[in-house]
Structures are given as C-alpha cells and as structure tokens.
Write a structure and sequence with these properties.
10 strands; 4-stranded antiparallel β-sheet; mainly beta; 110 residues
C-alpha cells in the first residue's frame, strides 16, 4: 500500500504486510492511522508516522473484506466481508487494539 502526497505528486510512504490484495482502506479521524482490509480476511492497522511494519492485525472474517470505515470520532470501526457479515469494533487504537462488539449477518438494509 502506498501513501501519496497529491500536492507534490509523490509517494511518501510504502506499507508492506498483506499477503493478498488490499480491497479497502480508511483513515482514522486523527489522521495518524490507516486501516486496510484485504482478500486474506484480515484487517491491518498502520501508523502513518512509521512505515517499517503494521501496528496490529485484526482477524475474524471468514472471507474477503470489502469495506472498512471508522465512525466520525474514531471510536468505532466497521468492516464488511464477502462472508455476509459486518463486524463492529470499539476502537482503542492508541493502545493497539480493537474490542469486538457485534456482527450483523445477512442483514438487508434496503
């Protein structure tokens, strides 16, 4: 995964760690962290101030993750997967962890 400075049109950081294709990324509202979801069913959290390795990994989905997003204040993270679930986590990103809260399976929103 690469982080680009669009004003200068250059890559500022490269993050390595996923073993399969990244399908979704989201910035934490404090702008210091990025979460990425991948086909390998895992979420990885990255500190944009460090590029040597990911901060931690979150597992739980049974199939590819296709969407991730933080709540507006960053206190929750949601991830959606091809396993037909949406997982909700309480974000404790500064202490390097997410607390699993619940999942929603086969929920039809429309």
């Amino acid at each position: 995964m690469k982080l680009w400075d669009l004003r200068n049109e250059r890559c500022t950081s490269t993050f390595k760690g996923h073993k399969s294709g990244i399908t979704s990324v989201a910035f934490h509202p404090n702008a210091n962290y990025i979460v990425s979801g991948a086909r390998s069913n895992v979420l990885k959290v990255w500190d944009v101030r460090r590029t040597d390795e990911h901060v931690f990994t979150v597992q739980g989905h049974l199939d590819s993750i296709n969407a991730v997003n933080f709540s507006p204040k960053g206190e929750y993270l949601c991830s959606a997967s091809d396993d037909a679930t949406v997982h909700v986590y309480r974000s404790n990103i500064e202490d390097k962890g997410f607390e699993y809260i619940d999942d929603f399976k086969d929920t039809h929103l429309f």
